[in-house]
Specification:
Shape: globular
Helix content: 25-40%
Structural class: alpha/beta
Largest sheet: 6 strands, parallel
Order of helices and strands: EHEEEEEHEEHEHHEEHEHEEH
Number of helices: 8
Strand order of the largest sheet: 5-2-1-6-7-8
Bound molecules: NADP nicotinamide-adenine-dinucleotide phosphate
């Protein structure tokens, strides 16, 4: 693979630091590495592969130098302003914010599900929401075989999904301190409130899961609903997914076989021995874990699933680095 000039925008953040970890673990072929953040942390020293890098302030001139790929995780407003500037300089941006995900010219990609969409990018590729990535990784093989009719998501999301500030709220809340990031204490609590409330009564996180599932599975009319909940867990999102299909499932074992064979999906489904996916087991790994697979006996062709993944790794950094790997391979040709 050709070595690429890579920028990490938001390098000091929760996702940004994990980018660096995942890039190193995957031995991503880097020629020059540029780390960028806001003025606040310009000058901060970060280590990558035994070398020290100075974080530079992101400005309109940051992409004047030759950069091939930029991994952005610095929030929506930063992406709104700077991703087009980078793209205009010939950089391919892989953006972690929600800013570009629904834009018709921007592919929304999970490499195990719709890698083919990378090829029609116009300089910006969006990384889906963490809760969507792990869901579609298990839905795709089932959709291919049984054709999904309706999906009901209920999520149990880790505080790390709200960045460093979310993590601190749980850590400090466990010591009795008042929350600073969340509107209520998260320690000992569940908050049915992730991102802002919208006019239809859903939260934006819920709508993101709905919109993004449709876009990634290329089914704009797919029936999807969601309730997203923040829970006092540091790492990994857990999801209960109820799915109804067009076609009958003759044997539930076939569903398990399909999921066991799906790329980067691990089947953990041995309830007799108390084995099912757990947040603490998924933390620090790149796979999506699925278990508790059973029929939904209240409908004709339905099943229930329990799906867990590390929201900062597969839900953000790992997925983006996988996209960058595909881009780097294509640059080699
Ligand atoms: N956490 C997750 O599970 C997750 C999953 C998927 C996507 N995302 C998305 O990834 C992004 C970052 O999330 P995070 O959890 O890593 O947040 P975070 O820990 O709060 O980090 C935010 C990063 O963005 C940088 N930043 C903020 N404003 C900036 C600006 N004006 N110019 C340049 N850099 C700026 C910060 O730099 P300073 O150090 O200078 O403040 C920091 O590096 C968000 O868009 C989030 O929605 C997060």
């Amino acid at each position: 693979m050709k070595k690429v000039n890579l920028a990490v925008v938001g390098a000091t953040g929760m996702v940004g630091r994990t980018f660096l970890k995942v890039l190193k673990e995957k031995n991503f072929p880097i020629d020059n590495l540029y780390l960028m953040a806001s003025k606040r942390s310009a000058g901060t020293k970060l280590e990558y592969d035994g070398k020290e890098y100075i974080v530079e302030e992101l400005t309109e001139h940051s992409f004047d130098k030759p950069i091939d790929i930029a991994l952005f995780s610095a929030g929506g407003s930063t992406s709104e302003k700077f991703a087009p500037i980078a793209a205009a300089h010939g950089v391919i941006v892989v953006d972690n914010s929600a800013q570009w995900r629904q834009h018709p010219d921007v592919p929304l990609v999970v490499p195990e599900v719709n890698p083919e969409d990378i090829s029609w990018n116009h300089g910006i590729i969006a990384n889906p929401n963490c809760s969507t990535i792990q869901a579609v990784a298990v839905l795709k093989p089932l959709d291919d075989k049984y054709k999904i009719k309706r999906v009901v998501y209920s999520t149990y999301q880790a505080v790390s999904g709200a960045g460093v500030a979310g993590w601190n709220d749980l850590e400090n809340g466990l010591k009795g301190e008042a929350p600073k990031k969340f509107p209520h204490p998260i320690a000992g609590n569940c908050l049915p409130h992730i991102d802002v409330f919208m006019e239809n009564g859903y939260t934006k996180e819920e709508m993101k899961m709905i919109w993004e599932t449709r876009k990634i599975l290329h089914d704009p009319d797919l029936k999807v609903t969601a309730t997203t909940v923040r829970v006092p867990v540091f790492s990994s999102h857990s999801e209960s997914i109820n799915v109804e299909f067009e076609k009958p499932i003759d044997d539930i074992e076939d569903v398990k076989k399909l999921l066991a064979a799906a790329p980067d999906v691990v089947l953990v489904d041995d309830p007799a021995n108390n084995k099912y996916p757990l947040a603490i087991d998924a933390a620090g790994t790149d796979e999506v874990y699925v278990g508790r697979i059973r029929r939904d006996e209240s409908v004709e062709n339905g099943i229930n699933l329990w799906v867990v993944a590390d929201n900062i790794r597969k839900g953000a950094a790992t997925n983006a680095v996988q996209i960058a790997e595909i881009l780097a391979e294509a640059m080699d040709k």
